[in-house]
Design goal:
By secondary structure, this protein is mainly alpha-helical. It folds into two domains: 31 residues, no CATH class; 246 residues, Rhodopsin 7-helix transmembrane proteins (Rhopdopsin 7-helix transmembrane proteins). The chain has eleven helices and no strands. Helix 3 runs antiparallel to helix 4 and helix 5 packs across helix 7. The chain is globular, with a radius of gyration of 25 Å. 36% of the residues are buried.
Length: 286
């Protein structure tokens, strides 16, 4: 019967007649894994995501307990950082697409640093100035979301694993938002940290008259601000390492190093001068 069918239909052969389990197994063997091959860049992006989520959980818990606006701003910033890191993780494992790059560009290059800088504004300039800045930032964030997500791209093929550049895909408007978000906001954080270090070491409160802030441990506060400034500089330093590690690897390394140093700075700033057993008891009570 099979011979007659093969003569009647020339393209039919023995390979066309396979059992259902064999077909399913062949399909499964050809199907690409969900996360693709695990590369070092993907592992670095995954680690960055986990650190950012842990950092966001830490600041969100403090905001729930104390309702201080700068901690709410930091939480928003860190969640945006985590979204950008997830987009990078996905792209390094599966290859870049236009959708993943838009999320990465918006959350990582445009929005997260300004919200982190808003926390500095609250700490140094007080709640009144911080609230005004937050209102403007909410409006600008909405405009940035609309511009980046709707901006026409010059190409939908991003070349697989290679990290694209905004100048290769987008016009002027998204890149202006990225320059302001990454450059101006980072400058606010760094200048604020340096200002705080100088004021604290001189025995003064690192805030204007409109901000109420008490410093119980000046040296620890100065060290924490130094770590915050260093972390912000590291996040901006991927270009320095690109020549030695490659652009993608340098970017992944500086993201992880920067968020770890920032987290260390915030942990130092929030540490209490208590014994470890007393800290543990406080955590259990909470």
């Amino acid at each position: 019967m099979f011979t007659k069918l093969r003569r009647a239909v020339p393209w039919v052969n023995e390979r066309s007649f396979v059992t259902a389990p064999t077909t399913a197994g062949a399909f499964r063997s050809r199907r690409r894994p969900i996360l693709g091959w695990v590369t070092l860049n993907a592992a670095l992006a995954a680690a960055t995501t986990l650190v950012a989520l842990a950092f966001a959980t830490f600041t969100f818990d403090r905001w729930l307990r104390r309702r201080r606006p700068h901690e709410g701003a930091w939480t928003v910033s860190l969640l945006l950082f985590a979204f950008g890191s997830i987009a990078l993780w996905w792209a390094e494992a599966r290859g870049w697409s236009l959708a993943s790059f838009r999320v990465f560009f918006l959350a990582g290059a445009v929005l997260n640093v300004p919200w982190l800088a808003l926390g500095t504004v609250y700490l140094l300039l007080g709640q009144r100035v911080g609230n005004i800045t937050r209102a403007w930032l909410i409006g600008l964030s909405g405009a940035a979301v609309g511009v980046v997500l709707s901006a026409p791209a010059s190409s939908s093929d991003l070349g697989g694993q290679r990290l694209p550049k905004g100048s290769e895909l987008f016009g002027v408007a998204p890149r202006v938002f990225a320059a302001v978000g990454s450059g101006v906001a980072a400058l606010v954080i760094i200048v604020g940290a340096v200002w705080s270090i100088i004021r604290v070491l001189r025995g003064r409160v690192p805030a204007t008259a409109g901000a109420v802030r008490q410093i119980d441990r000046p040296r620890r506060t100065a060290a924490a601000n130094a770590l915050i400034a260093i972390g912000t500089l590291v996040l901006s330093g991927s270009g320095t390492l690109a020549g030695r590690l490659g652009e993608d690897r340098a970017f992944a390394v500086t993201l992880l190093m920067g968020i770890v140093v920032l987290f260390a700075g915030f942990l130092v700033a929030s540490a209490r001068s208590q014994r470890p057993t007393q800290q543990l008891s406080d955590l259990i009570v909470r």
